[in-house]
Amino acid sequence: MTEKVWRIGVAGLGTVGAGLIKFIQARPDFVPATGVRVEIAGVSARSRSRKRDIDISTYTWFDDPVALAQSPDIDLLVELVGGSDGPAKAAVEAALKAGKPVVTANKALIAEHGLELAKLAEEKGVPLLFEAAVMGGAPAVKFVREAMLGDDLQAISGILNGTCNYILSTMEQTGASFADVLAEAQRLGYAEADPTADVGGFDTAHKITILAALAFGGAPNYAAAEISGIDTVELIDIRMAHDLGYRIKLIASAERGEGGASVRVAPQLVPLTHPLAQAMGSLNALFIEGACVGRLFLQGPGAGEGPTAAAVSADIADVIAGAVRPVFQGPAAGLAPLPAARDAGWHGKAYIRLLVRDRPGVIAAVSEALAKAEVSIDSILQRPVDDTGQVPIVLTTQPASEAAVKDALSHIADLDAAVEPPRMFRIAHV
Amino acid sequence: MTEKVWRIGVAGLGTVGAGLIKFIQARPDFVPATGVRVEIAGVSARSRSRKRDIDISTYTWFDDPVALAQSPDIDLLVELVGGSDGPAKAAVEAALKAGKPVVTANKALIAEHGLELAKLAEEKGVPLLFEAAVMGGAPAVKFVREAMLGDDLQAISGILNGTCNYILSTMEQTGASFADVLAEAQRLGYAEADPTADVGGFDTAHKITILAALAFGGAPNYAAAEISGIDTVELIDIRMAHDLGYRIKLIASAERGEGGASVRVAPQLVPLTHPLAQAMGSLNALFIEGACVGRLFLQGPGAGEGPTAAAVSADIADVIAGAVRPVFQGPAAGLAPLPAARDAGWHGKAYIRLLVRDRPGVIAAVSEALAKAEVSIDSILQRPVDDTGQVPIVLTTQPASEAAVKDALSHIADLDAAVEPPRMFRIAHV
Would you state the pLDDT for residue B2? Predict the structure, then answer.
């Protein structure tokens, strides 16, 4: 029997690319079908001469990832360049146009251009897979796309960015500030030199946008996501939250709503006993709730060479297995970006922290500001006054509408005693 | 465009069969491909007239599931009859021989006859899928077979039987005895009239046997599994374990060892803070550890109409997607039953409970018995003497070999003061 060789082109030789090459070098026959072997045939990256811990000298080098995608010596393109546009998009388009399957780890690309690429892939009848884009080696995409298919999914929520989770966990464990922990994470290579995509919540938003599309049957609609990052979380919030029985996590959530879905990324307070609160360090964790299946929970390392390379490899094996599925849930020609739900914002409890000048009647004034907005107070914590004469006050509210909480915040900000605008995080309803 | 209709035959109309029929009646177009529709064409069950909450009057009735499997009006057989032999096996074989794909929820069948059926399926070139056999709607099979494929898996451990987990959880929460909780579970329909398969650990063993085969690249080898059930767990053990910081769970585990794998089912003490200890009621939970991927955790409802029907539906969608994969990890023609590892048993801490006549020197005698076996004591708990004059003593050991612990147990059993043979559970190394 003749052995069928699949010739892989790898565009992008960073951590994941190197991991993939090691994986395939170690296990060229990892696809469990008779007579199939996978080999790396060509590679492309920004710098050919950069020091790497893998030997790439036997692979054909391409300066241009588009040329790699178009090369007749390549059967399948793995895109690990990153970025929603530029060379990553150009290479993926070139491969699909040439009728070649594409496997990518690029969440920005799929979240921002998923529909357009899915249309192209389906016109050409080739798969476009992106398991590694969400939760590294934990198969979140396969989960929602294949295992919960047909179920009436209601909600997804979880922790999808290991860098943010590492920063929040380390702040809690060491008592260091956000800035110090971020700097240390950058030094260790856990955070990028420009950390905006991670700490600003944008990476998380790309990921939840993809999962929401798969869960609720639309194309990704990144523009509709509401995004707040962790750069507003201070050590005092982490400590106050802990005293109240919560841990602050960057929570991605997608809920079915009227006419579409609400997709949000924001720091939230999660009860200490909840599994999402217990996912520490760089772990990712995800709840998926379906009408038939009930609540499923998936947890694993969200990034890193090994996990992400394993996810890419699983996608390569899926391409070779030859399943014919649409890129999202339903043929791309009939899909539209998943609309934002037409509901009036979230509803739930909130944590509010304010800094006020210590003077008689401050608590009364704060209470009054909340009462004016018809928001009831659940608990209040006041810290001892330090020598600045400024007092942090933390309060939690009874369940209220987003509009009412925002109204209360504006009344609080207007108080004479207020030193800075109040900080607000939702208390997760999990 | 002509619509392609897949005509499904359902053998077995219990809880899962009824759930599947409801699912497909509600969502005939759940497969997200263009122009594919799924319809139930024929059904078979033991009793045609039994009262059911679904309407089956429009489906062709077959008294014999083999005739259903062979019917020219059926494109795909769903086997939900259950049992490792008899009509379930006959129907699955008949369908495969007729070149028809089979989807089954039958763990006993796959664990005990998986290799033989896989060979038949692969000779005929048709898929044989069994996602619903393990963890209900949580995609454990897809996880190990597709998502962690190619990774060097090291160990799997988890809770795979909802009935046992419900019984142990309820004993802890209500303080009722094993017998009382079992009787109540039977009354509520959570446990079978003959509970042996569940409480004896055999159902769990079928499931871990299947996962071990997929994880470690062999065919299922049910005969090699070491099995203990929860019928040896008494309320006093649950309470004593709790006082020591543990919860007793029926743990299924599979570990790579010399020349094969160690596959075990037994009640074990799990630290209260561990995710496996926190999976209460009928939840199932699973850790999978791979060299590349790291530790993944999956949790969900392990059984029930909705979850299991969703898993069967996902398999039907996979059949229709047309992926060509071997039934296990590698072509069945080249597989052998996964051998038992040639190692000398487990190594770890143990919990030992004994009942002795209260007399001076008993603790000294017990210590001596352990010392003779070279097992060191980690902690001892002795309860106050009641009016029977018999004292329960609970001790935990330092890590020791299985042989040494068993040696210690035989010395303890030989003590004059011993009222009954000592009870031993492992403390999970998780």
Answer: 63
Mean pLDDT of A22-46: 90
pLDDT tens digits, A165-185? 999 999 999 999 999 999 999
Chain A partners within 8 Å of B324 (Cβ): 33, 321-322
Closest CA to B133 of B353, B302, B326, B4: B302
The verdict on a CB contact (< 8 Å) between A296 and B293 is no
Mean pLDDT computed over B295-308: 91
Burial class, B427, CB count within 10 angstroms (exposed 0-12 / middle 13-18 / buried 19+): buried
Nearest to B147 among A139, A148, A309 (CB): A139
For residue A319, the chain B residue with the least C-alpha distance is B323
Could you tell me which CATH number the domain at B140-302 has? 3.30.360.10
DSSP A294-361: EEEEEEEE-SSHHHHHHHHHHHHHHHHHT----SBSB-GGG--BPPBP-S---EE-EEEEEEEE--TT
Q: Is B207 known to be catalytic?
A: yes
Facing residue for A331 by CB, picked from B34, B297, B325: B34
Q: Domain coordinates of chain A in residue numbers?
A: 4-133, 140-301, 347-427
| A308 in B contact zone (CB under 8 Å) | no
Please state, for a pLDDT cut of 90, what percent of chain A lies above it: 84
Contact between chains at A137 and B324 (C-beta distance less than 8 A): no
Instruction: Give the CATH fold of the B4-133 domain.
Output: Rossmann fold (3.40.50)
A304 touches chain B (CB under 8 A): yes
Predicted confidence band of residue A196 (pLDDT cuts 50, 70, 90): very high
Superfamily of structural domain A347-427 = ACT domain (3.30.70.260)
Asked if residues B323 and A321 have their Cβ atoms less than 8 Å apart, the reply is: yes
- The residues in A 61-90 lying below 8 A from B, measured between CB atoms, are none
pLDDT tens, position by position, B263-284:
999 999 999 999 999 999 999 9
pLDDT digits (tens, 9 = 90+) for A199-214: 999 999 999 999 999 9
Residue B384 at interface with chain A, using a CB cutoff of 8 Å: no
